[in-house]
Specification:
It is a multi-pass membrane protein. By secondary structure, the chain is an alpha/beta fold. It is 63% helix and 10% strand.
């Protein structure tokens, strides 16, 4: 074989194959996106990423991956020809031809290794960037218009959104590329090796009928029949994989809730009940796992049997021609290799059916998630207007999801210096009214006028984000000198990642904690470091900010925590509910909003602390509009008016005046 000509032919083949494949793939994607359900699902998720208007890089990278995939196919063809050359040299006892084949193998193997490594990097870089984009798209939509909250009002709320964002996005990006390139590789290889087998195959006699090039027709018939049976056997795996994802997510969520509500469960001694719930959900996981095992046994057993039976076919069929010296040993071995490769290519859809089933389940989950986001964002919204620092409700009617009125035709304006207390029996709609004012409650009509951004809602159980106590104090604002992801932090992460490539760390927990929970330098330390070696340069802003946060903790009687401001911890577990509520008041005093809404925000405090917190608000925020929800009579002294909800399912309400304590 003239390998110089083979090299030229390979270049021509790559140009032709690339052009044809690019046209065919583009046409097929367009057809599938229009004509099939899963094609439309894929395009709805991926169209934005591949839009040239957004960026040309994803399409260029995909074109490069396609080229590398076709290079892999051509290398397989060249290796097939190499097998023929090498075995023919052995049969002819051609020593120089044998060593020439070894040198050629070294060249082909080097190209194959370099291509494989480059392809590995390009594909992984592509999927990582795709994951980043898709995560930002779904996460942004999930947070936009508070869909994460409003989705609970849907008739069928989406289950386990955390898993769909974190896990299903990864599976979608990785499997989309691997299956797409796998299909292309299989189809192009099928064409290439069919030509090789066509040239090597002789006539085949079946029941006295001679079939020219019979081996080619035999392998196609064999694999197509096997694929039909495999699809029938493997079809239930689609539903089983979908259920596997759901049951595992449900079990994981139950475990998270056990950790989140550990203290309440311990006080109730509810271990038996929780254990029964956890074991029940785990039983669903295991039952489905066994169903997958049994179905996979049938599916894999059939595939293994088909694959093993195909190994000896080419030798049996070509043996007579070899012994009659019609073909050489090289031809025989190349026939076997080409037959096996062709059989593998044609069997791709049969062998990868389990992957297709997993992929289809992932598509369904992500499509259901995006639909839930769209439905949540499409729920009716109250008419919320911003007219500066003003709170007013005009003809406001609030209903339950079933249509029962909680509040009907409320006209009210709350002015600075005239705090309003909202009272009523349990279930009368006090908190729901605050949800409506915040724009969270979809079942209401009327106009709501409130500050667009300068408003703060404090709930009965404050939310404390993960991170330092300082970050919890300033939430939802960013720290005034936010140094998140500083160059030092990024460098530390890069060093940890680089170190992990050289050896397996002895303690992975220490490595992760070192990356994720490095203690932040306090602002005072930062100022000290920045001023070293610079006489006369005194940056007092950081020190002032540090002192401001510490002073705020002392104001709300949490001074014992001042030296732990920059300690990162799960403060929602460390602090008692009363301490959390006082921290929320510190958050309020730092934010200085135009309006504040307190939903039983002092319920865990004693009356003395409650009085102290309200006095702080009156003293430090005299111009802030204040609305409170509460039951205690001690709140009367801090509010000049009361809105009393009757809770009689007619929406009746009443406004009364009280004496404000000064």
């Amino acid at each position: 074989m003239n390998w110089t000509e083979a090299l030229i032919e390979s270049g021509i083949w790559l140009i032709q194959a690339y052009s044809i494949t690019l046209v065919v793939v583009t046409f097929c994607i367009g057809l599938l996106a229009r004509r099939t359900v899963w094609g439309r699902q894929f395009w709805a998720l991926a169209a934005g990423y591949f839009s040239p208007r957004r960026s040309w890089k994803p399409l260029a990278t995909l074109a490069l991956i396609l080229f590398l995939t076709l290079c892999a196919v051509r290398l397989e063809v060249l290796f097939s020809n190499w097998y023929n050359t090498m075995y023919t040299a052995l049969q002819d006892l051609d020593e120089s031809g044998f060593w020439g084949a070894m040198l050629l193998f070294a060249i082909l193997a080097t190209i194959h290794v370099l291509r494989s490594l480059f392809d590995f990097y390009v594909q992984n870089a592509f999927t990582i960037r795709w994951r980043v984009w898709l995560n930002e798209k779904l996460l942004g939509n999930w947070l936009d218009k508070q869909a994460y909250y409003r989705s609970q009002y849907l008739d069928t709320p989406v289950d386990n959104p955390d898993q769909r964002i974190q896990q299903d996005i990864t599976t979608f990006a990785e499997m989309s590329l691997s299956l797409c390139m796998g299909v292309i590789n299989a189809l192009v290889s099928t064409f290439a090796f069919t030509l090789i087998l066509w040239g090597l195959s002789g006539p085949l006699s079946i029941f006295g009928v001679e079939i020219p090039r019979g081996m080619v027709f035999l392998v196609f018939a064999y694999v197509l029949i096997a694929t039909v049976f495999a699809i029938k056997i493997g079809r239930p795996l689609i539903l089983l994989n979908f259920l596997n994802e759901r049951f595992n997510a449900d079990y994981r969520y139950a475990l998270v809730r056990l950790r989140e509500y550990a203290e309440s469960i311990a006080f109730y001694a509810g271990e038996k009940v929780e254990g029964a719930i956890l074991r029940s959900r785990f039983a669903n996981v295991i039952n489905n796992a066994w169903a997958i095992v049994y179905r996979s046994l049938k599916f894999l057993g059939f595939n293994f049997s088909v694959s093993q039976a195909a190994v000896v076919f080419p030798f049996i069929i070509q043996a007579q021609r070899f012994f009659s010296k019609q073909i050489s040993l090289g031809d025989l071995m190349q026939t076997a290799q080409a037959f096996g490769r062709l059989q593998d290519n044609l069997s791709f859809f049969r062998n990868a059916y389990d992957d297709f089933a997993t992929y289809r389940a992932t598509l369904d989950r992500l499509t259901g998630f995006t639909k839930a986001i769209g439905d949540a964002r499409a729920l009716p919204e109250p008419e919320v207007l911003a007219e500066g620092p003003r709170i007013a409700l005009q003809r406001l009617t609030v209903r339950t999801p079933s249509g029962t009125p909680l509040l009907k035709d409320l006209d009210l304006e709350v002015l600075p210096g005239e705090p309003l207390l909202i009272r009523g029996p349990s279930g009368s709609g006090k908190t729901t009214l605050l949800r409506a004012i915040a724009g969270l409650w979809p079942y209401c009509e009327g106009r709501i006028i409130r500050p667009e951004h300068e408003a703060l809602f404090l709930s009965q159980k404050p939310y404390l984000p993960l991170g330092s106590l300082r970050e919890a104090l300033y939430y939802p604002q960013r720290l005034p000198d936010d140094t998140s992801h500083t160059p030092a932090d990024i460098q530390h992460q890069e060093q940890a990642a680089l170190a992990s490539t050289h050896r397996v760390p002895s303690n992975l927990d220490d490595l992760i904690s070192g990356v994720q929970a490095r203690p932040r330098l306090s602002q005072q330390s930062n100022a000290t470091l920045s001023n070293q070696g610079q006489p006369g340069n005194h940056d007092d802003e950081s020190v002032t900010l540090d002192g401001r946060a510490a002073d705020m903790l002392r104001l709300v009687q949490l001074g014992h925590l001042a030296d732990r401001l920059d300690q990162a911890a799960d403060w929602g577990r460390i602090l008692s509910l009363g301490e959390q509520q006082r921290l929320a008041f510190g958050r309020l005093l730092l934010a200085r909003p135009d309006a504040v809404f307190l939903d039983e925000a002092t319920s865990a405090m004693d009356e003395g602390l409650e009085d102290a917190m309200y006095r702080l608000v009156h003293e430090h925020l005299p111009d802030t509009i204040l609305l409170s929800v509460g039951h205690r009579s001690t709140l009367f002294a801090h509010h000049s008016r009361q809105l009393i909800l009757k809770g009689d399912e007619t929406g009746t309400w009443e406004i009364t005046e009280t004496d404000l304590l000064r």
